[in-house]
Design brief:
heterodimer; A: about 325 residues; mainly alpha; MetI-like fold; 2 domains; two-stranded antiparallel ribbon; 15 helices; about 75% helix; B: about 350 residues; alpha/beta; D-Maltodextrin-Binding Protein, domain 2; eight-stranded mixed β-sheet; 14 helices; about 20% strand; elongated
């Protein structure tokens, strides 16, 4: 009944004049939303075009060597971004390694297990964390986290995993590890708050069906709710990753700003976003400025590549889940 | 009257003023506090309104070259290439006006060491080249016979962001050490550091310094004084260990034998009684020609005020004053602005 009356009214509207149809809102809303979507595309395209254009001197001078060499020498006019690329990848990997399990577990607790009042309160507090300016995270990192890492975490890591090259060498506080930890704290709110919403959006029928056939609460969550929410949870992780890759201020305050590639996570390093923030304002000379812009283009490319890889991963796992 | 209508009334009063000449400038962050104070004082004395954006020296040079601001500011003197680029783009010259002086000082975190350490050029270059590793190195001990130096590793800290302080520091090191000059190169706002870790800004360097025993780092004199951080004396060319302060920094400028006509000069590694050797000018970058003659008059008026009356205000902000001879020479250059 209902569907036939909707079809009837649509037919009726189609027969009316243009003005009347406009009043119905379909065309206007189509145009407005289209314009917004196109605008976003245009902004991204302009950014890429500008980055590409302004990095031409560096691209002509260094080409692929920019990504393969490690010297960053403003005086000698030699620029290689490999240590920055390495630092960005390493710190983001540490951050996700910590933030994904913690964040998803918190989201499961908040969505599936906690009493609603507690869940709302905790979610509110976690979302507050997302609004803290990154310079504050950097300062907290220097003055609170670094001493803790120095006194507790590093001795523990060295005594248990000291045989790994990852945890060898002297520790000055600022390091890949410290930057990764600060980033983890910064991105957890993104994972928790988006994942929680996604988990809450899983239809109750799904849970009831699982419980009805005798699954425990945990089995329901693990086997039914999580797979259902998988793509949304991955979405939250992408958001977190994008934030970690591009974070500037907090990272530069705790990473040590030393363009070196070392296996040890306890050594100081550098990241792409940090070097741009550090050196852009005072950079003089075409090649220097253009190398920094090229580094920005590389970061842009890196984000796209990682996102694409992650999407392929999701597709692969969801197909596997479908055939299983 | 409500707050809203009151602010409307204020706006209405402000509009006729807005039609007058206004100047915008951009550039160096190091002198930004004294510039802001100057512009406010100059405006409240009934003169033009000047808006200054501390975006960094590199940005200031770029903005003035492209004509997006009325004047720029830089902590490093323009290079020949930058002057040529300016002239090629604008068909006239850009003039440099020294405004105040600053200095870079070596600060350190050494437990158990009270009093000021003495540094020589060889010690500072050795530490920053990564060749002096320990605080009880014979070279440091020789300069500090009365201090019991610990057997502790030195952790070198430098600025990670491009800065005029780094320019001044590396200008000094490249003058006093031929090894530094060949390995790292000339003065620059950022260099390829042979050793050490980087902190963002003076506060970043100070933060790392406080955390790590055995660390040494350079920072602006003003920052070290305001935050009561310990810093050492540096031996000048006359063989005297001098602590940086307003007097010893101005002395470094006054000891200049000959000021070049374009004011592009480095005063690091100076000789003379009471001269602090890691000192530097900071400059305003002013076009020699303005299409708007009102603007030219306004800029000339301000420059004259800044190097005369303005100088009385700089010491309260811990900047060193210009020596008298430099002021007299700048007055002549102001006349070149058309």
């Amino acid at each position: 009944m209902a569907s036939s009356s909707i079809a009837g009214s649509l037919r009726h509207r189609a027969n009316r004049g243009v003005l009347a149809r406009l009043r119905g809102g379909d065309e206007i809303s189509y145009l407005v939303t289209l314009a917004c979507a196109v605008l976003i595309f245009v902004v991204v395209a302009l950014i890429v075009a500008k980055l590409w254009g302004n990095s031409q001197p560096a691209i002509r001078a260094f080409g692929w060597d920019f990504l393969r060499t490690s010297r960053w020498n403003p005086n000698g006019g030699k620029f290689g971004a490999l240590p920055f690329l390495y630092g960005t990848c390493v710190t983001s990997a540490i951050a996700l390694l910590i933030a994904v399990p913690t964040g998803v577990a918190s989201a499961i607790f908040l969505a599936e297990m906690a009493p609603p009042k507690l869940s709302n309160l905790l979610t509110f507090l976690i979302e507050l964390l997302a609004a803290v300016p990154s310079v504050i995270y950097g300062l907290l990192g220097i003055f609170m986290l670094l001493p803790l890492i120095r006194v507790y975490l590093v001795p523990a890591l060295k005594s248990t995993f000291g045989f790994l090259p990852l945890f060898q060498g002297s520790f000055y506080g600022v390091s890949f590890l410290s930057a990764g930890l600060v980033l983890a704290v910064m991105v957890i709110p993104f994972i928790v708050s988006v994942s929680r919403e996604v988990l809450l959006a899983v239809p109750t029928e799904q849970r009831e069906a699982a419980l009805a056939v005798g699954a425990t609460k945990w089995e329901t969550t693990w086997d039914i709710v999580l797979p259902y929410a998988r793509s949304g949870i991955f979405g939250s992780i992408f958001l977190a990753l994008a934030r970690a890759l591009g974070e500037t201020m907090a990272v530069t305050m705790v990473i040590g700003n030393t363009p070196k590639i070392t296996a040890s996570l306890l050594s100081p390093g550098y990241s792409i976003a940090a070097v741009i923030a550090n050196e852009f304002a005072e950079a003089s000379g075409d090649l220097y400025v253009s190398s920094l812009i090229f580094a920005g283009l590389v970061l842009f490319g890196l984000t796209i590549v990682i996102n694409a890889l992650a999407r392929i991963l999701i597709l692969a796992t969801s197909q596997k889940a479908a055939t299983a | 009257m409500s707050n809203f209508s009151r602010s409307l009334a204020v706006l209405a009063l402000a509009f006729p003023l807005a039609a007058q000449t206004r100047l915008t400038g951009a550039g160096a962050t190091f002198p930004a506090p004294v510039y802001q104070k100057w512009f406010a004082a100059y405006q409240s004395a009934g003169n033009v309104q000047i808006n200054y954006q501390p975006i960094g020296s590199g940005g200031g040079i770029k903005a003035v070259t492209e004509g997006t601001v009325d004047f720029g500011a830089s902590d490093a003197p323009l290079t020949d290439a930058q002057l040529a680029a300016y002239k090629a783009k604008n068909k006239y010259d850009v003039l440099l006006f020294p405004t105040v002086l600053g200095a870079a000082v070596p600060s350190y975190n050494l437990p158990g060491v009270t009093g000021e350490l003495n540094f020589t050029a060889q010690i500072l270059a050795g530490i920053y080249l990564g060749e002096i590793h320990k605080w009880n190195d014979p070279k440091i001990a020789a300069a500090n016979p009365k201090v019991k130096l610990p057997d502790m590793d030195i952790l070198v800290i430098h600025r990670s962001d491009g800065s005029g302080t780094t320019y001044c520091w590396t200008d000094y090191l490249s003058k006093v050490s031929s090894e530094w000059k060949s390995k790292v190169g000339a003065a620059n706002t950022s260099v390829e550091w042979p050793t050490g870790i980087g902190g963002k800004g003076n506060d970043g360097v100070a933060g790392l310094l406080k955390q790590q025993e055995g660390a040494v780092g350079y920072m602006e004199l003003i920052y070290a004084v305001k935050n009561k951080l310990p810093f050492g004396r540096v031996k000048n060319k006359s063989g005297e260990f001098v602590k940086a302060d307003l007097k010893s920094v101005t002395a470094a400028a006054a000891a200049m034998k000959e000021m070049p006509a374009d004011f592009r000069v480095s005063i690091t590694d100076g000789a003379g009684a009471g001269v602090y050797p890691i000192s530097t000018f900071t400059w305003l970058l002013v076009p020699a020609h303005y299409a708007d003659s009102g603007k030219a008059q306004a800029v000339k008026g301000f420059l004259h005020w800044a190097i005369t009356k303005g100088q009385e205000q700089v010491e309260s902000l811990e900047y060193a004053k210009l020596p008298k001879a430099v002021v007299a020479q700048e007055e002549k250059q102001i006349a070149r602005i058309k």
